[in-house]
Amino acid sequence: MIIIGERINGMFKDIGDGLRNKDPKPLQEWALKQQEGGAHYLDVNSGPAVPTEERPEAYEWMVKIIQEVSELPLCLDSTNYNAIEAGLKLCKRPAMINSVPAERPKLERVFPMAVQYNASLIALTMDKKGIPKDSENRLAFAMELVAAADEFGLPMEDLFIDPLILPVNVAQEHAPEVLETLRQIKNLANPAPRTVLGLSNVSQKSPDRHLINRTYLAMAMASGLDAAIMDANDDDLVDVAATAEILLNKSIYADSYLKVFRQR
Question: Which of 51, 78, 182, 193 is 20 to 30 A (C-alpha) from 221?
């Protein structure tokens, strides 16, 4: 199970202020906190704090200052692919690109970039019309993404397909459809593509966010989830990930498995 720490995002006030003021402190503090919490990657997203035309320079700065304090690989998160590429050029370890929808012009831009920079790629089961409601149509997009990986030469183990979970308080019917999509994605190729979710989306604006996140993470892992963009500093959530790995026989049990999981 790969944990991608979600907290370096300009939508959070402290990160947004840091980006606007070119203050590295909040970004570096959260890089270290998430590393200590158990993150394996750090998601890096300027959000709305940086104007579109300034994002390539901002991503260069973010990559540079985060790598000053952490050796964790980065997940560069933006719809501005020039900004992602600017950041990729400075990454010391193979990075992850977040993300690309199943839209042909964007596939042609992003898949070759991932191959060029030896990066993994998060690809979304949606197009410009939006997110499908059912697993069948999500899976159709997943098939397009697998075909694109084959076309552009991206190794299947570097393709992470995100079936896009929506908030349960407004789209409850999507939750089981996403679980079914996770299960079916594993049948699309051999080796199979990997899977990822933006886990915190499932609990947006719900009062019991932590409980919803923890429960859905365990359910998704049992359905084939390989990675999650999530709160790496929710100790109980990270413990769920570690324990589910043991119960799914994906890692070897030891009495110290919670500690081992965080040290990988």
Answer: 78
Tokens of 213: 């996140």
Q: What is the pLDDT along the chain (264 residues), one digit of tens a residue?
A: 999 999 999 999 999 999 999 999 999 999 999 999 999 999 999 999 999 999 999 999 999 999 999 999 999 999 999 999 999 999 999 999 999 999 999 999 999 999 999 999 999 999 999 999 999 999 999 999 999 999 999 999 999 999 999 999 999 999 999 999 999 999 999 999 999 999 999 999 999 999 999 999 999 999 999 999 999 999 999 999 999 999 999 999 999 999 999 887
